[in-house]
Amino acid sequence: MLMDVTEIQKILPHRYPFLLVDRVTDITKGQAITAYKNVSISEPVFQGHFPGHPIYPGVMILEGMAQAGGILSFLSMGDLTDEEIANKVVYFMSIDKAKFRTPVKPGDRLEYKISVIKQKGTIWMLKGEAYVDGKLASEAELKAMIVDK
């Protein structure tokens, strides 16, 4: 299942400059999602992180993982209508075992691979990995809950 940014915006409330998923390339409901973000030098974060040595912040990588996980969670909750989706939001509950293995730089394509560790009701435990050119750049375990707005 492919999703472009217009379809992603129907699920996630985030908008520029905080929408951190450009496209979904694969999804297996209730199991896993693969998505990506193209990291561009024109992103506002590079004005201060770091001038002359731009590095994409680890916290932004984690947020991108969480957004991809949010898409997976919403699409795995059965056949929600657009209206039902619009009245819900995903909240982060915890981030564990976060590791940053290699710097992410402008021009990189950050590929998110998120898989379900466990799901109970509206609470999701996810394993997140972020790759650049097939090399693991970051990983973490994420816990999130879908709630009414």
The H-and-E topology, N to C, reads as HEEHHEEEE
Strands of the widest sheet, in order across it, are 1-2-4-5-6-3
The count of helical stretches stands at 3
Globular, elongated, flat, extended or rod-shaped: what is the shape? globular
Number of strands: 6
User: How far apart, in Å, are the first and last alpha carbons?
Assistant: 27 Å
* Rg of Cα set: 15 Å
Query: Helix coverage percent of residues?
Result: 10-25%
The share of residues in extended strands comes to 35-45%
Structural class: alpha+beta
Task: Walk me through what this model shows.
- It is a single chain.
- Strand 1 and strand 2 form a beta hairpin.
- The protein is globular, with a radius of gyration of 15 Å.
- The protein starts with a helix and ends with a strand.
- It has a six-stranded antiparallel β-sheet with strand order 1-2-4-5-6-3.
- With 149 residues, it is α+β, with helices and mostly antiparallel strands.
Give a nutshell description of this structure.
The chain has 149 residues and is an alpha+beta fold.
Task: Explain the layout of strands and helices.
Elements: H1 5-11, E1 23-28, E2 32-38, H2 58-76, H3 82-86, E3 88-100, E4 109-120, E5 123-132, E6 135-148
Labels describing this entry:
globular; alpha+beta; 149 residues; 6-stranded antiparallel sheet; single chain; 3 helices
